[in-house]
TrEMBL record, chain A:
<keyword id="KW-1133">Transmembrane helix</keyword>
<feature type="transmembrane region" description="Helical">
    <location>
        <begin position="32"/>
        <end position="49"/>
    </location>
</feature>
<keyword id="KW-0812">Transmembrane</keyword>
<keyword id="KW-0472">Membrane</keyword>
<feature type="transmembrane region" description="Helical">
    <location>
        <begin position="117"/>
        <end position="135"/>
    </location>
</feature>
<keyword id="KW-1003">Cell membrane</keyword>
<protein>
    <submittedName>
        <fullName>Uncharacterized protein</fullName>
    </submittedName>
</protein>
<dbReference type="Pfam" id="PF04066">
    <property type="entry name" value="MrpF_PhaF"/>
</dbReference>
<feature type="transmembrane region" description="Helical">
    <location>
        <begin position="91"/>
        <end position="110"/>
    </location>
</feature>
TrEMBL record, chain B:
<feature type="transmembrane region" description="Helical">
    <location>
        <begin position="6"/>
        <end position="23"/>
    </location>
</feature>
<feature type="transmembrane region" description="Helical">
    <location>
        <begin position="53"/>
        <end position="72"/>
    </location>
</feature>
<feature type="transmembrane region" description="Helical">
    <location>
        <begin position="30"/>
        <end position="47"/>
    </location>
</feature>
<dbReference type="GO" id="GO:0005886">
    <property type="term" value="C:plasma membrane"/>
</dbReference>
<keyword id="KW-1003">Cell membrane</keyword>
<dbReference type="InterPro" id="IPR042106">
    <property type="entry name" value="Nuo/plastoQ_OxRdtase_6_NuoJ"/>
</dbReference>
<feature type="domain" description="MrpA C-terminal/MbhD">
    <location>
        <begin position="11"/>
        <end position="77"/>
    </location>
</feature>
<dbReference type="InterPro" id="IPR025383">
    <property type="entry name" value="MrpA_C/MbhD"/>
</dbReference>
<protein>
    <submittedName>
        <fullName>DUF4040 domain-containing protein</fullName>
    </submittedName>
</protein>
Length: 139, 86
């Protein structure tokens, strides 16, 4: 039994399953928030899986998602013509991501791995602070 | 523990794929499709195939939605802008 993988499983069931439900039944604005939230929640899952499997190179997945997730959200916002303001995404980005990255940094210790983790965390939080700020103008 | 993660990911992939099939509006369908791509990337990671997951992430999260949305916009604009009829 591995605590990191357990945390990843909890995040999958408690975080991404409700996102899927919202995406399936919600209205377009809610769906855009759900799409944004899915990338915020998937990044910590990738980081936890990397630590749980003992493969530090798996963190590249989280890095790619941290860069492409907000870009995908902005693509949808451009075509829907609306980028809803979302406290849920902002709150999740500022709580779940530090709560995942900081323990991983403590385990990794000082060095390149820690710097990479911090870069990923800052990218996720910064990107989703932008996409959750909201502009109700046409993009 | 690995099996539990894989099982959760498989259930999420199946649910997302079913939801994508039952949507009729291409715009909403493409959003569910991007979520399906994300779940597939997670599944590939859990079965120790990070290279496949990497390409799935790159294609699924930004490129596929962009292409679908561009196509939808082109089709909705009508045959007027194109030179030949549809």
């Amino acid at each position: 039994m591995n605590g990191w993988l357990l945390a990843a499983a909890v995040l999958l069931v408690a975080g991404l399953a409700p996102v899927l439900w919202t995406m399936a039944v919600g209205e377009p604005r809610t769906r855009l928030v759900a799409q944004n939230l899915s990338t915020v929640l998937a990044c910590p899952v990738f980081l936890l899986a990397a630590q749980g499997f003992g493969r530090p190179s798996y963190t590249d997945l989280a890095l790619v998602l941290a860069m492409l997730g907000p870009a995908g959200t902005l693509v949808y916002a451009r075509f829907l013509g609306v980028l809803p303001r979302s406290r849920v995404v902002l709150g999740t980005a500022w709580t779940v991501v530090p709560a995942t990255v900081l323990p991983l940094c403590v385990v990794a210790g000082p060095g390149r791995a820690m710097a990479k983790l911090l870069v990923i965390g800052v990218l996720v939080v910064a990107g989703n602070t932008v996409t959750s700020a909201g502009t109700d103008r046409h993009g | 523990m690995d099996e539990v993660l894989i099982a959760i990911a498989v259930v999420l992939v199946a649910a997302a794929a079913t939801a994508a099939v039952f949507h009729r509006d291409p715009l909403r369908q493409s959003m569910v499709l991007s979520l399906l791509g994300l779940f597939l990337a997670l599944l590939y990671t859990f079965v120790q195939a990070p290279d496949v997951a990497l390409s799935q992430l790159a294609v699924g999260s930004a490129v596929t939605p962009l292409m679908i949305l561009l196509t939808v916009r082109k089709v909705k604009r009508g045959p007027r802008s194109g030179s030949e009829d549809r």
